[in-house]
Amino acid sequence: MLILSIESSCDETSVAVTENGRRILSNEISSQTELHAAYGGVVPELASRSHIQAVTPLADRALESAGISKSDIDAVAVTCAPGLIGALLVGVSFAKAAAFALGVPLIPVHHIRGHVAASYLAYPQLEPPFVSLVASGGSTLILDVRGYTDYRVIGSTRDDAAGECFDKAARVLGLGYPGGAALDALARDGDPFKYKLPRSKVEGNAFDMSFSGLKTAVVNLAHSAAQRGDKLDLPSLAASLCAAVSDALVFRAMEAAVRSGYGKLAVAGGVAANSMIRSNLKSETERAGIAFYPAPLELCGDNAAMIGSQGYYEYLAGNTADAALNACATLSPEAACR
Question: Which of 74, 126, 133, 260 is deepest in the core (most CB within 10 A)?
Fold first, then answer.
């Protein structure tokens, strides 16, 4: 089954062609990083306008790269939630028009479910059930993936996402936007124990997390140093921040994986590209005898291939939509898009 998929939930426009949920035929991405860098973060109106300009040429390129024609497409999948509402509407509108014109099913896909499915594209042996950690700029979740379309949230952040913490800290440290990759590179030359940064404990659920206090601690440290005229050891501060985020994510993800009894842990999302977090998860899963399935670096960020992969399983489960499909800014991954 060949699926044309569209992703436009934030600041990347992407169109892909995938086969049977496991094989990428093409995965075209147009990044808006330079557009938003001047503002230190994503400007929703600019993101929506950029998606409008990019989506049609990307679709043409995706078909060409896949070596297929429009008539070969069996279904159209699209991210419908969660994300920036204007950005999502661009993708949903394009997908509805494409599905109608081609006379094929329209498959709505939850963005977080798509991130989980990124690992399906890299590991043919991976099948539910398993535990998945999804950490990005907008979401930080630990999921019990009981089936391809059966999800339960084990834990989540109560406030900021891990990626947002990275981006805001990077901005105050003068590293620009987006900040995750810059922090990661800088941290490799630093001492992760030099700065004592907080590790949160959240009452009510041992798997829930909080990153707002960590973000504030880094901001306050930077501002205090500037006021005193002190020079920060930026590599060590970056390493200390990465270590704090890693401690929060790795401990909880591992605990969830061990308790589940599945013996499998997947990790995806932009924060999953962080070298310290990946390394620590790899070490801990090896120690515990748990199979580890990290999404490939090229599939950690937002992309349409992961949407096409999950779209295949949504289709098999009967989760399709009609022209009444709307976008939704917030939606639990436990709920299928309608």
Answer: 133
pTM (predicted TM-score): 0.95
Give residue 69's domain range.
2-116+299-316
Which CA distances in Å does 152 have to 113, 117, 227, 242? 11, 15, 46, 27
Q: For 234-280, what is each residue's pLDDT tens digit?
A: 999 999 999 999 999 999 999 999 999 999 999 999 999 999 999 99
Rounded-to-integer distance, Cα 184 and Cα 181, Å = 5
Three-state secondary structure along 276-326?
A: HHHHHHHHHHHHHCCEEEECCHHHCCCCHHHHHHHHHHHHHCCCCECCCCC
Q: Which residues contact 224 (CB under 8 A, 6 or more apart)?
A: 230
Q: Are 13 and 54 in contact, with CB atoms under 8 Å apart?
A: yes
Does 17 share its domain with 59?
yes
Do 13 and 89 fall into the same domain? yes
Q: Which residues contact 52 (CB under 8 A, 6 or more apart)?
A: 90
- Please give the angle made by the CA atoms of 114, 115 and 117, to the nearest 5 degrees: 65
Q: Please, are residues 117 and 313 in contact by the beta-carbon 8 Å criterion?
A: yes
* Counted domains in the chain: 2
Q: What is the CATH number of the domain that holds 189?
A: 3.30.420.40
Determine which of 38-52, 119-133, 251-265 has the lowest per-residue pLDDT on average: 38-52
Q: Does the residue 123 lie in any domain? A: no
The span from the CA of 79 to the CA of 159, in Å, is: 23
Return the SS3 of 134: strand
Kindly give the pairing relationship between strand 12-19 and strand 2-7: antiparallel
